[in-house]
């Protein structure tokens, strides 16, 4: 009984990070794109790098979500 409870708590801990992982990947992507647009290229490329890195952040977030779901099945 104790091992079942321990396993449930471990899975709860892993899956409670899903939202944080997804949101942080998106915000990091937006941040990198914004810095490139406004600090490196002085707004000449705005909003293109922000949009590209937003897409990359979303893709990275869903890749992490997929990896977490596959780890649960093992």
The helix content, as a percent range, equals over 70%
Shape: rod-shaped
What is the terminal separation in angstroms? 20 Å
What is the typical, i.e. mean, pLDDT?
88
What is the N-to-C succession of helices and strands?
Answer: HHH
How large is the count of helical segments?
3
- Approximately how much beta-strand content do the residues carry? under 5%
Please give the number of β-strands.
0
Computed Rg? 17 Å
Please identify the structural class as seen in this structure. mainly alpha
Which secondary structure elements does this structure contain, and how are they paired or packed?
Elements lengths: L1 H14 L2 H23 L7 H26 L1
Helix pairs in contact: 2-3
Task: Write a structural description.
It is a single chain. By secondary structure, the chain is mainly α. Helix content is 85%, strand content 0%. The chain has three helices and no strands. It has helices spanning 2-15, 18-40, 48-73. α2 runs antiparallel to α3. The longest helix is centred in the last third of the chain and has 26 residues, at 48-73. The radius of gyration is 17 Å and the shape is rod-shaped. The two termini are 20 Å apart.
Question: Which key terms come to mind for this protein?
Answer:
0% strand; mainly alpha; 74 residues
Summed up:
The protein is mainly α. The protein is built from three helices and no strands. The longest helix is centred in the C-terminal third of the chain and has 26 residues.
């Amino acid at each position: 009984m104790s091992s079942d409870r321990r396993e449930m708590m471990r899975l709860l801990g892993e899956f409670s990070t899903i939202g944080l992982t997804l949101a942080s990947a998106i915000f990091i992507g937006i941040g990198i794109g914004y810095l490139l647009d406004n600090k490196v290229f002085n707004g000449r490329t705005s909003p293109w790098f922000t949009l590209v890195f937003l897409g990359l952040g979303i893709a990275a977030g869903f890749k992490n979500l997929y990896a977490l779901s596959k780890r649960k099945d093992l």
